[in-house]
Amino acid sequence: MTVSNIGRRSALKYSLGAAALAGLGLPRVADAQALDRLRVFIPAAPGGGWDQTGRTMEQVMRAAGIVSNFQFENVPGAGGAVGLPRFLAMRGQGDIIMVGGMVMVGSLIANKSPVKVTDTTPLARLTGEFQVVVVPANSPHRDMKSLAAAVKANPGSVSWAGGSAGGTDHILVGMIGQKLGVDPKAMSYVAFAGGGPATAAILGGQTTCGVSGYGEFAEHVKSGKMRLLAISSPTRQAGIDSPTLIEQGIDVELANWRGVFAAPGISAAQRTALLGIVERMATSAQWKAECEKRDWAQIYLAGDGFAKFVADEVTRIEGVLKGLGLAA
Predict the structure, then answer these.
(1) Which of 162, 212, 215, 269 is the 20 to 30 A CA-CA neighbour of 206?
(2) Angle between helices 214-222 and 195-203 (to 10 degrees)
(3) pLDDT digits (tens, 9 = 90+) for 287-305
(4) Could you list the residue range(s) of the whole structural domain that residue 72 is in?
(5) Cβ-Cβ contacts under 8 Å for 189 (sequence gap 6 or more)
(6) What is the CATH number of the domain that holds 233?
(7) Is residue 1 situated within a structural domain?
(8) Weakly modelled stretches of the chain, pLDDT under 70
(9) Contact 134, 223 (CB under 8 A)
(10) At a CB cut-off of 8 Å and minimum separation 6, what does 132 contact?
């Protein structure tokens, strides 16, 4: 089994939902201590993906009567590397959670941070967004096999537009290169500060192709200005007309996952209480509706299973970043 727990070999986990906690032998919600207040720590600026996740959690928990008193704190910088040390200093505090995800894992490694996401108490993986590879409509590449052939012939001749160096987009490009037998450092990755400039570069033919979450390109795909070549999911996704990388002979799958973490050093009772309210939220009709509205894939995994997943992700992403020359 690969260290990636988001894939064919673990797809069953996605459908387990509330059974995740039960399967781990953890106390059910009925046994969990109630919380009358929840502080939510966001190691990013307001408005981003982690912030949206935290605010949606608040909305759902209020609507479902799980928790009604919330307090938010945003500490942006370096993909979570600035905020994480502050969160870790809240050791033993059982009324606070942090929203984070895969981007933080990569950022901490790339920034050679002295702290790791495994220094927290991982609670649950909630959502994921699969990456897509796109080309402009006038591109000669009609599918991923054609693009892969060009990469194999001359890795540097194919330029990839994406987000910051070492981020999810860059990691996917590195994984594709590894599977194609190409040195990832030889591939031409062009990092952009935001989705707008990257999209403009792709549409303007300044790069061969682009990588991001589907939502970033959806408008241009639907208008016919871009062509979808592949998606990094284990199977085809409803509402996204794209074959997977896997079915085109590139055994790569990747999701930009988001989850929640508790402070280090909390008691078993505090952990149980937090797991309980997260489970109630993640299995509620309100949460399902919000995820569908926002095109978030629900990939719920809680407790010890999530803690192992996080540890495996650190190992996996570190390996990819080393291949890209971004980690020691």
Answers:
(1) 215
(2) 40
(3) 999 999 988 889 999 999 9
(4) 8-128+255-323
(5) 159, 160, 162, 165, 170, 173, 324
(6) 3.40.190.10
(7) no
(8) 1-34
(9) no
(10) 211, 212, 213, 214, 217, 228, 229, 230, 231, 232, 240, 242
